[in-house]
C-alpha cells in the first residue's frame, strides 16, 4: 500500500486549480441509468470512487470510457442488469445511488446494503422510506435491498434528516412517477442543485434544489435524453487547499473555487486570521500568524460542512488558544484525533466534541489514514510539522483527492509518494 512522506515547514505559494466534485459526479453518473443513450460528463475528477462507480455502471451493462482528460462517456443503451453485488458496493457506499434510477427505469433493483464505514453506521432507512412512499415494495434480505413496483406514484415525502444521497436517490426515483413528488426537509447541498440542473437538461421536471423543498413532476420515460454535462467544482477539495494555505502562512490563489458554496468555511478562516480575497482568477487565501482559535459545529448545508471538520481540526492544533469542535452529523468522525496526538497535538474528545489546545508546533511522526477526510487532515498536519511525517493507508486519500501531492508540491510542499506493494 502506498505511503506519503512529507517534510514539513514549507509555506504554500502559487496557484492551484480545483477538480470536479466527487459528490456531484457520483449522483450524476447514477442519473445516466435513467435512460438509454451516450452521456458525456466533463470535469470529472480522477478518483478511485469514480472508477468504482464506472465499474458498477459497466456491471449494469453500460459502456463506460476511461476518465481521460477528466472526461467520461457513458453509454447506457444496453443497461439490462438491476443487481449490484456486495463485492462492488462494499468498497463504496455511494453505490446506493443506483437504487433510485434503476427502480425508476426498470421498476426493480437489488443492491447490496452498503455496510457502515469508519465514520459511522450510515443507515439508508430514510432512502427506503421514501421509495416506499413512491409505491415501491422494499425488502431487505441476505444483506441486499430489493425494491420493486408495478408503477411509481408521486408522493409527499418528509425526510427525517436532510440526507444528501437520500435526497438525490429520491429525486432520481421520482423522475417518472405519475403526478407530483414533493420532498420536504431535503438536503440543500450545492451538489443537489448540480443534479437538478443535469436532470432538467435531460428533460426531467425538477425544481427547488438548494432549498428544503424539492418538487418533481413525473414525465414519460421517452421524455429523457442523454446529455453532455460539466461537473461542478469540488467545494471540499477547494476548502482543503484554503486551510492548507492558511496553516502554512502561505499565499495561494485557488482557481475554479466555488466560493459561494464555502461561506461557512470562509467566515471561520477569516476569524482565525486568514486573509481571503476574490480575484479574477479565483479566491486568494493568505495565512498569518498567530492562527486564532475558533469554535466549529458541523451542520447540514449551508452550515459548516462535516467534510471540512478534520481539516479545520488540523489547523486548530497549532492555533494560539483553545477551540471546541462539535461533530453533529456523523457519530464517529474523530478518527484523525489519535493520529494528530501522535504528532504532539493536544486534543481531548467525548462523543461529539473535541477540545483542542493549540501547541506551538507539531512534530513529524509515522501515522495512519483511517478515512477520506481524516487522511486530508493528516496531510495538512504534515505540511506544518517539524521534520518528516509518514502517512500509511493513503488509499483513503485517493478516493477523494485527485493527485493531491502533485498539486501541493507545485505550491512548494515537499511530499513523496512511496509505493509499498508488499504491505
Ligand atoms: C454525503 O454522504 C457525502 N457523500 C458525504 O461525504 C458527506 O459527509 C455527507 O453527505 C454529509 O454531508 C456523498 O455525497 C457521496 P447523509 P451521505 O445521508 O449522503 C444519517 C466525503 O467525505 N442518515 O447526509 O451518506 C447518517 O447516518 C463523504 O466526501 C440516516 O440516519 O450522508 C448521518 O448521520 C463522507 N438515515 C447523516 O444522516 C439515512 O437514510 C448524514 O448522512 C441517511 C442518512
List key phrases describing it.
single chain, 423 residues, alpha/beta, UDP-n-acetylglucosamine1-carboxyvinyl-transferase, Chain, 2 domains, four-stranded mixed beta sheet, 14 helices, 24% strand, binds ligand EPZ
Describe this structure in words.
This protein is an alpha/beta fold. It folds into two domains: 204 residues, Alpha-beta prism (UDP-n-acetylglucosamine1-carboxyvinyl-transferase, Chain); 209 residues, UDP-n-acetylglucosamine1-carboxyvinyl-transferase, Chain. Helix content is 30%, strand content 24%. It contains 14 helices and 24 strands. A four-stranded mixed beta sheet has the order 22-23-1-24. Strands 2-15-17-16 form a four-stranded mixed beta sheet. It is elongated, with a radius of gyration of 21 Å. The model has no long low-confidence stretch (mean pLDDT 96). Ligand EPZ binds next to helix 1, helix 5, helix 6 and helix 12.
- What fraction of residues sit in β-strands? 15-25%
Termini distance? 6 Å
Structural class: alpha/beta
Uncertain regions spanning at least 5 consecutive residues:
none
CATH topology of the largest domain: UDP-n-acetylglucosamine1-carboxyvinyl-transferase, Chain
**Averaging pLDDT over every residue, what do you get?**
96
Named once each, the bound ligands are: ligand EPZ
